[in-house]
Each structure stands twice: as structure tokens, then as C-alpha cells.
Amino acid sequence: MDSKNAEQKKPLTRFGEFDLLKALAIMGLPAVHVMEEALEGNFSSPGLVKFSYMVIGLCTFGPSVFMICMGFGISGGRTKHDAVLRNGIQFLLIGAILNILRWFLPGIIQSALIDKNLLNDLDFCLMSDIYYFVGIYYIFYAFMLKIGVKTPGLIMISILMLTANMLLTPVMHDLIKDPTLSALVGNYIYVDETSCFPLLSWAIFPSVGILLGDILKKSDEEKRANIMKRTMDFSAVLFISFVSFLWVYKIDIMKALVSPANEYITDLPNVILLISLALFLISLAYYLCKHIGSSSFMEFILRISAFIIPFYMLQWIIIAWLFYGLEIAHVKPGSFNLIMYLVSVIIITFICIIVTINHGMKMMKTLLKITNVKKKKKKKNKNNKKIEGKEV
User: Fold this and answer.
1) What are residue 44's DSSP bridge partners?
2) Cβ–Cβ < 8 Å for 367, 97
3) Distance in angstroms (rounded) separating the CA atoms of residues 102 and 113
């Protein structure tokens, strides 16, 4: 009886905290992206604008946690540089496919119906996005593996990149004015608010994830529990201390949390706050998973976590087409209110969950088949082999 109960309580996966946070970060994106599109398109009502500050707070942990979890997934010292390089190219292609589906195609329809310039939509396709970042980071990491850089060196190089980005940000902001050039350079160095995930400023997050993976994947359960406890204590103290520092020196805490770099702050406050918050959430999720690790909810989370690429792509495509449709329909500015926002988020999230759970595997196989860059080995038939053998 005891062995049966123990088997029932056994976690579905050893590192469920990373799957849990990765899935929650992805499922929270429709709320953020609908709000961002409503604000940028000038559709949001005054009441929705006031509510937006709360929603944008979701950005404080979503991307950073996702990137740390991504880094954790590729860690462990068993990864070869050529495989990482291929994955990087695949992610770049996935990002390009997503941008064509969410910006370029509806942009063509929009330009045909309401005579709007398509050039802006082409610039959108080049802009820094999370899968462009993942692809560029994989390629960067493959190069680090090729030249033999270990994880401590990777962390130091990421910090140097962060420092370089901090110094180059004002130069790029003043020097680059062309939208197309800004979109391209913004994938590597922060230029303006369109530079969502520049490599130099965001590489530190997956690098920290790789470090966590190197440490945790080699640890037994007792050592891992001790590491998580110390991580929770350290991250909580760091977060509270740094928030106090920002408050005393009258630095906008929310702006420091949600922005990787801008004219007001450098990258450093943002990174310290986000890493400390992410580490606290990871350690908190570890203890949570010890209680729900074998539950049906955790089984659901693991399915979402396994198919985050289809979920991410689908929610963006639906949201982008929704707001292109509002613009084509000449919806009045300020007419997208709080109720419309909440209904949209619930429906989009529900659709993405259902489609991802039921068709995530098919979507992933199709996507990976399209973006496959691995050379196929030519199969020789038996007759050719026999002929070659006789000739030899």
C-alpha cells in the first residue's frame, strides 16, 4: 500500500518547476499582447489605458523566466555545437514564418483594402522578437561551444555584452533613424522601443539558465533541495534590497522592471530585478511542484510546455489579424474597452489551449519539417551496394 501511494505521488517530471513557469509565462502572453496592440493601435479606451499598467506588469517575469528555462533546457554538457547551430537556424526560420503570417499577409490585405503603405509591415517582419532572439542566441552559444568556452566564461561574456549594450544604446539611438536598419540592428543592440530582445542585453538570461542546468542536473534530490532553498533566500534579499535602492534614488521601479534598455535607465537595474525575481519564482515553483507534481493540472502544464511554439505562434497570429481587422473596419480610436479586452483574452487563450493540446504534435512536426536544415543521407539500394562491392 505504501509503495502504491509513493508511486501515485511521484512527480511526472524531475524538473517540473521549469515546465510550470515556462507554460504559465506563455499562457499569460495573450493578455499582454492584446493590451500592447490595443495601445499601439490607439484602440484602447481611457479605462483600458488605466488598467494597462497592471497587465504590463506581467512582462516583469514572462520573457526572462522563459529565457532562463530555455537556457536550462539546452544545458548539461551533452550538446554539440553543430546541433545547437542547426537549432538556431530553425528558430530563425520559425520566427520568419511567424512574422509572415502575423504581419506580412494581413499587411498585404490591409494595403489592398485601405491603401496603406506595406513598408511598415516589412519592417515589422525584421524586428527583434523572441524566436529571432532564441535563434540568434543558439548560434551565439554554438560558437561558444566551438571555441571551448565553458559556462562560467559564458556568464562573463554575457555580462560584457550587457555592458557593451549599455554603452552603445545612446549611440545607436542617435545614429540610427532608418526604420529598416533599426529593425535589423535591434536584434543585436538596443536602438529604440522596437528592439524587444537584443542579443547583447538579453543573452544573460539563457546563460543563467545554462548555469542552473549545469548545477541542478548533476545534483541529487537532497543537494537540489538545499540549492533551491538558498536560491530563494538570496533572490528575495537581492530583489527587496535593489527595489529599496531604486526607491531611495527615485528611479521608476516599474519602468526598470519592464524595459530592457531605454533613455531613462541602463540595462543593469532591469537585469538585476528580473534575474532575482525569476530565480525566486523558480525556487518557489520547485516547492509547489513537490505538492502538485503528479496532479492532472501538472499533466496539463506539461502538454502546454511541450508545445509552446504552436501556442506562441497561434496566439500572435490571432491577435495580429484581430487588430488588422479593426483597422480595416475603421473602428474608432478609444472604442476597445475593458470588457472587450477581457473577452478577447479569454477567447484567444482558450482557443490556443484547445488547439495546442489536441494538435500541438502535428503542428510541431509540420513546422520542424518545413524548417529542417539537416542534410538527409542518401540511401543506396542493395543493387548499387552489390555492384560497388564487385568493382572493389
Assistant:
1) 336
2) yes
3) 17
Q: DSSP per residue over 139-186, as a string?
A: HHHHHHHHTT--HHHHHHHHHHHHHHHHHHHHHHHHH---HHHHHHHT
- C-alpha pair distances (Å), 261 with each of 80, 164, 165, 264, 301: 33, 12, 9, 8, 32
Could you read off the pLDDT of 81-97 as tens digits, one per residue?
Answer: 898 999 999 999 999 99
Q: For 102-150, what is each residue's pLDDT tens digit?
A: 999 998 998 888 877 777 778 888 887 889 999 999 999 999 999 999 9
Count the helix, strand and coil residues of the chain and give each as a percent rounded to the nearest 5.
Answer: 75, 0, 25
Q: What is the pTM of this model?
A: 0.88
Nearest Cα to Cα of residue 216 among 285, 162, 271, 291: 285
Which residue type sits at 227?
A: I
Contact 123, 183 (CB under 8 A): yes
Distance of CA 65 to the CA centre of its chain: 8
